[in-house]
């Protein structure tokens, strides 16, 4: 295991090429712990600086991460390797939410999409992650893609994770098996076109050697769903129905709450009071300290008067 205070360049580049990552968050006192899978990293995730990354959050049937970001900001991003070189990458962050109706939202989307797209149907927010620690670990127990699915039958199986269970620092080498020799990325496509066929004997039509990312493709369902909702002017109503609160009742997407007719400050105050009520020991200690200070304040003038 290795720890970093910021995002190293080689790990940032590797993370942005993975077909899937996961977000983990939880409320301060709620019962639910939320883990969500995310895809389309080529257009929806970007490392903006060594201490900041962000991803585009599309409209879905829940809003756990957004609600948790508003309440406490704790967030962990998880990336895993599906190739011959094992790796688990965790990014520990404090998260903030930039909703779709904020002035900075369009520029953030364009930056994260790296010029490939200027807008996405149903994009409800950008989750900005302020990185305070990055961790890598071995990932020996994580399954990998079968090499014959993307490599030619004559390719050497240079599997460097066999019998390496006493060394978990190999995951930070710059010559990762996920990098092509020409430095180009031949990973998952954001289109629905089929991936290159294994019959090409491990190379794509341009002659570039394929890696395990070539067997992934982005699912078109989200784009179709969002396009239909936007076309029928139903997206905002859908957000109001499904994104106004988390499973634990925390306030969710602010735009959705307004559309649902909520008064934002009332909901925020109510959530704050419920949070305080969930900490009875802290409330009791605070009350006792206040009482003690009050009694001391009454006693001090008497002491000085007696002197």
UniProtKB/TrEMBL annotation:
Acidic residues biased stretches: 153-180
Region annotation Disordered: where it falls in the sequence: 151-206
UniProtKB keywords: Membrane, Transmembrane, Transmembrane helix
InterPro entries found in the cross-reference section: ARM-type_fold, Split_barrel_FMN-bd
Claim: Amino-acid biosynthesis is one of the keywords in the record: no
Residue spans crossing the bilayer: 282-305
Name of the protein in question: Pyridoxamine 5'-phosphate oxidase putative domain-containing protein
